[in-house]
Prior knowledge:
Layout (H helix, E strand, L loop, with lengths): L1 H19 L5 E3 L6 E3 L4 H44 L11 E2 L3 H5 L6 E11 L4 E10 L20 E5 L2 E5 L8 E9 L8 E4 L2 E7 L8 E7 L4 E11 L6 E12 L1 H30 L6 H19 L10 H39 L1
Parallel strand pairs: 4-11
Antiparallel strand pairs: 1-2, 3-11, 4-5, 5-8, 6-7, 6-10, 8-9, 9-13, 10-13, 12-13
Helix pairs in contact: 4-5, 4-6, 5-6
Amino acid sequence: MNTSIQASGASSEFLMARFDSPAPNTATSSSSSVSVPVTPDPFIEKKTHSREAKISSRLVAGIVLFVAFLAVVVGGVGGLIKAGKVSATNRLDDALAASSNVDMFLAGSAEGLLVQATIISVDPVALTLKAQYEFALSNFYSTNASANSLFYVPSKAINISIGSDIVKYAAGSPMIPTQGTILISGDVSLYPFDGYQTTALAISATYGDSTNSIPIYLELFRIADGYTLAANLSETAGNLIDSPVEIIATVDLARGPTVKSLAMLMAVGMWVMTLCCVVLTAMLAYKNQPVQLPHLALMATVLFAMPNVRNTMPSAPVVGALIDETVLIWAMVLLAACLSSHFIRYLMAARRDYLDEVKNK
């Protein structure tokens, strides 16, 4: 009798010890010795995912708003600053370059002819530069009619040579501003990092008899057309002291920082859109998710929008530039591959659905 009682007590102690040891991922009830598995609360997980999604959405929205604000501020302020520097004659008030003793001529203490050249436009495809020329004469070479006229009136015939252009004014005729074309050298295919240089321009003038050279002065201006310019001037002195009779000018041109930054920003945007479409295509194929009509519409829209995005780059040349070889062509190839993949998977799925429907009939 005692032996059975002892065995019963030992077995109950063994069972109590076994149930008292907690199992992993289980919870022990206070009223019962039965262990219950701990399962994650789906409400807590859903709330956590919702919080993470909300943080990600706010982060993306903040980045987009910051980029939009930066674009508005930089573009607006830059445009206002540029517009404030441009005068009513559509040229910058500050001269890009000026020959020696121009201040003396403007002050009336030097005789001769002043040529004010303003670069109007640049055609990088035709490799030409258009400039407008305005002229001013000192009292020695002009008539009294100049005081009552909008333009200077020479007392004798004047021939002005600017590169390959020759401008002639008869005696007593107003010196109306004129325009000329200057040849430049460069490679437009390097856009937006292309640069150009004008041919050497020899500027001189004769008065009356063709052998009588006029002391000449030069002021070079530019308009705000997306280029940065740098000019080099060399002078040939005449018989009079500090009175050059010939000026040789060369101008170097390059795309402005605004054009470069906008072109590169748009190029990066084109690559980002392309890579997003590639990732979307890969994810749909990897997860074997069905292709729907919105997917096809998205790919086709982005594909045919790429050339328009490229053409909106500031002062963009015709297709074939460096920006096309590094961005546009590859973007369109990848997008066309994505669109073809979507079409193939969409048609294959439609064929399977059709065969299943026929089989079930």
